[in-house]
Amino acid sequence: xxxxxxxxxxxxxxxxxxxxxxxxxxxxxxxxxxxxxxxxxxxxxxxxxxxxxxxxxxxxxxxxxxxxxxxxxxxxxxxxxxxxxxxxxxxxxxxxxxxxxxxxxxxxxxxxxxxxxxxxxxxxxxxxxxxxxxxxxxxxxxxxxxxxxxxxxxxxxxxxxxxxxxxxxxxxxxxxxxxxxxxxxxxxxxxxxxxxxxxxxxxxxxxxxxxxxxxxxxxxxxxxxxxxxxxxxxxxxxxxxxxxxxxxxxxxxxxxxxxxxxxxxxxxxxxxxxxxxxxxxxxxxxxxxxxxxxxxxxxxxxxxxxxxxxxxxxxxxxxxxxxxxxxxxxxxxxxxx
Length: 337
Prior knowledge:
The radius of gyration is 24 Å and the shape is globular. Helix 2 (76-89) crosses helix 3 (102-117), helix 5 crosses helix 8 and helix 6 packs across helix 8 (230-263). It has 8 helices and 12 strands. By secondary structure, it is an alpha+beta fold. It has a domain at 272-336: SH3 type barrels (Roll), CATH 2.30.30. The longest helix is centred in the C-terminal third of the chain and has 34 residues, at 230-263. The strands form 3 sheets. The chain has a 5-stranded mixed β-sheet with strand order 3-2-1-4-5, with helices on both faces. A 5-stranded antiparallel β-sheet has the order 11-10-9-8-12, with no helix packed on it. Residues 24-212 form the Integrase catalytic domain. Residues 1-21 are annotated as: Disordered.
């Protein structure tokens, strides 16, 4: 390790990170999800006060279908309540990937405790069928959650621009978010041939429902002839308000999504080279200058993982410190190639 200070730094390139198995292996479309919070978003309480909420976004790792739950804070209780509603809709979910936020870690522990403390055999069996394997990404590796982080950015930008200074009621905001969820999950991902000369777009929603269910609730536009009909007019006004926001969102999302598609595949692919045990690398730090990045040596890979499939590793620095880091933070030295 003493001779590590003399090796070239400036020409080294970041190590290539392979995709996780659940991203590339054939699995049912609603088995693997990622989740993260976005926000805050303002909403109006019944008292007229302004509250601050957050959106917990679930993204399917295979189809990129999304599901959104509005929460009042970032607590473990809110995570569990949102997860309960999510699993009531999609009972085939098997794994959830997230960052190492405290509320996610505690929610995972709560689920384990519930499973361990249930004594009744029948109930335990049913809970086992719904047991979630909660996976946490490696610290300092936000790109490991890129499949759900990308959806957060895609949804959040037009949403904030459309709402601007408007502050909907909590229930209105929930309905607006469910409409946005339907729009985003209906975006075209690829094409399928439905006939000799016909080509249809395949969307994430098609994998979830098996058909294109776009039932529209009709607007009630008649004037009330008696007092008992007044509630219908109130419903109509709130419905129009929600639809106005959703229509504006769809136009902006449509424009930004098309622009994203133009630039999504412009990167030139490069041949990947896996890291090896005892390989000396630069450990990317906070400084933009590579001269200040410490040198390290790869000392171990995750158990039962080949170098080609490893996404993280254990390293030791020249000072003897041992860390677990994602391999995209490591820059193999060019002299070793």
